[in-house]
User: Fold GTP-binding protein from Streptomyces xinghaiensis.
Amino acid sequence: MARRQIPVVVLAGFLGSGKTTLLNHLLSSSDGTRVGAIVNDFGRIEIDAMALAGQVDSMVSLGNGCLCCAVDTSELDGFLERLARPGAGIDVIVIEASGLAEPQELIRMILASDNEHIVYGGLVEVVDAAEFARTRTAHPELDRHVGIADLVVLNKADRVDEAGLRATLETLERLAPRAPVIPAAHGRIDAGLLFDERPRGEDTEPVRQLSFEDLYREANRERAARGPAGRDGGCGDGCDGGGHLHSAYDSVEFTSGTPLDPRRLMAFLDGRPDGLYRIKGWVHFGADGHREKFTLHAVGDFLRFYPSPWARGETPDTQLVLIGAGIDAGAVRKELEACRETEPGEGAADETGMWGVLRYVQREQPGAPGEPGRPGEYGEPGAYGEQGAYGEAGGPGEPEDAEYA
Ligand SMILES: Nc1nc2c(ncn2[C@@H]2O[C@H](COP(=O)(O)OP(=O)(O)OP(=O)(O)O)[C@@H](O)[C@H]2O)c(=O)[nH]1
Assistant:
């Protein structure tokens, strides 16, 4: 009997929209389905891959740069081959694209694969309900990404009011008239939407899958629209990423074995430049009583620390990836270097320095490994201590309704 082909689902969405959170939720709620993941981190430090480690049945990680610009597609082919080999027993492969990838290029690469054990399984586009209007203005190409999706997840529904949610929902339905648009919080969608039957809209028309012809026509249309002076964003033939989202972005990686001074780090975070849209990784503070691993996420104005114990054998350190447009990478790195404790035990002597950090602490990171999914809930999860959320980060400056530990 012929072997069933393994669907390869592309999980895309702008920086910080919640792709890893959604993937983690799927992994913890897809009983019995064996998921293979290909994770494409933008920075050299593979934060996403580490966030998924231990959850997934099989994972390969493609760090440092967008997969969509791989000139040599054989690397992806090699990974697909590995995950799709009969012995691996994988039912579905999910490629988590970097937050700056061109999903269309990834789809093209999957369709071009001559691996007979796999089949393109559709594009899931994750949209950040709180940031979409702003990012769409800065990056109109996001409309096109939504337009080619088979399923749109309107994530972070808990971060906007009902009217805001409805307005974004209507925009997305207009941009993707034939794809279901599902509001969600913390990526909690039904795994069956991706892994089993394909989702269908109100009508009986099957969900559209892009064919090679569609992609070819679309690429030609875009090329024509750009005109002779426009840069060709197509990949695979010596592409330099021109015209792609990520061509406008820089990433900075920062690691430190020396603990960071909480006051200096908060001064940096509170004053972070507007273009610095995404920060992820973890921080080691030397302050007494706060020596845990502080996982850090910033997405636009949003800022959170999620403390957890260091894993057995893990050496406490700081590893951060910072991604932004129009940022001075050298200056950002210098500012971070200045956040290192200069004297041993400095933080321990001044525990009050942690107060600034604690304003942004949330005890549990929903969707993180070990955190069970709770489908259908939009509410803000339990926060630091007993008292609910520690205030939404209002970006640089003081967060609204800040509370102190
Ligand atoms: N309030 C809220 N926060 C969310 C939700 N989904 C994700 N987050 C938080 O948003 C931040 C970014 O989530 P990730 O899942 O890492 O986003 P991502 O798309 O994988 O990020 P990149 O890979 O950098 O593009 C984390 O702090 C998440 O905990 C949600 O629905 N509501």
